[in-house]
Specification:
This protein has 226 residues and is α/β, with parallel strands linked by helices. Helix content is 27%, strand content 28%. The chain has helices at residues 13-28, 89-92, 96-112, 199-214, 218-224; strands at residues 2-6, 34-39, 44-47, 64-66, 73-76, 80-86, 119-121, 124-131, 143-155, 158-166, 186-187. The strands form two sheets. Strands 1, 2, 6, 7, 8, 9, 10 and 11 form an eight-stranded mixed β-sheet that branches. Strands 4-3-5 form a three-stranded mixed β-sheet, with no helix packed on it. Helix 3 packs across helix 4 and helix 3 packs across helix 5 (218-224). The longest helix is centred in the middle third of the chain and has 17 residues, at 96-112. The two termini are 26 Å apart.
Length: 226
Amino acid sequence: MVEWRVTSGLTDYDEAVRVMEQRAEDIAAGHADELLWLVEHPPLYTAGTSAKPQDLISADRFPVYETKRGGQYTYHGPGQRVVYVMLDLNKRGRDVRCFVRQLEKWVIDTLDQFNITGFIRDGRVGVWVERPDKPKTMTNQTAEDKIAAIGIRLRKWVSSHGISINVDPDLDHFDGIVPCGITKYGVTSLVDLGLPVSMFDLDVALKQSFERVFESDSVQACENAP
C-alpha cells in the first residue's frame, strides 16, 4: 500500500527532511508503508550533491539548505507543490533509470490532464514546456521553460526527496539561483501559462496519474515512459 499525505500550510524544511528520512528508514526495515507526502515550503533554496557555489547568486535572499538528493540548486516556496516520494524499489525493480523515467512520466501525464504538453530534454533535468509566446532561443525554434524539477536520493533502495511542480509560485524567487545549473532558459508555472489551476486540482491529477504510471505493470510503464 502507498499512503498519501497532504499537509496544509507551510512545512518547515528541516522537519520535512527529518520525517522523510525516518519514514524511508522504516520502509526499508519493513515497518511502514510507502509514502507520498505533498507539502508546500516557505521560500528557500536547496543545494543538491552536484551544486556549484557560483550558481547561488543571492545567498542572503532565502535560507539555503544542503541536501543529500542528486542535482544542483533549486527553489521551493508557496505556490509550488513538493511531493516527497518514499517508494521501495526493492519491490518495484531495482532499476534507477526506470524509476526516474517513471517520475518524469508521472509529471508529464499529470500536466496532460490540464492540456499541457510536458517533455524532457537530454542534458536538462526536469520537465519542460514550449513557450511559443516568447522569443526563440539560439538553439531551438521555440522558447522553452521549466515547470517541474526532479531530484531523488536512494538509500537501501528506498527513495526520498522527489518532485516539485510550479502551480503559482513567485517566479522572481528563482532569480537568486541558477536553477539546476541550467542557464538560457526560463521557469514557468501553471498559472503563468494562463491556467487557473489550484493546488487541490493538481493533487487530484497527481493521484490519478500515479495510479496509471506506477500501479500498472512496472516494466511496461518504464518502456512507455518518455
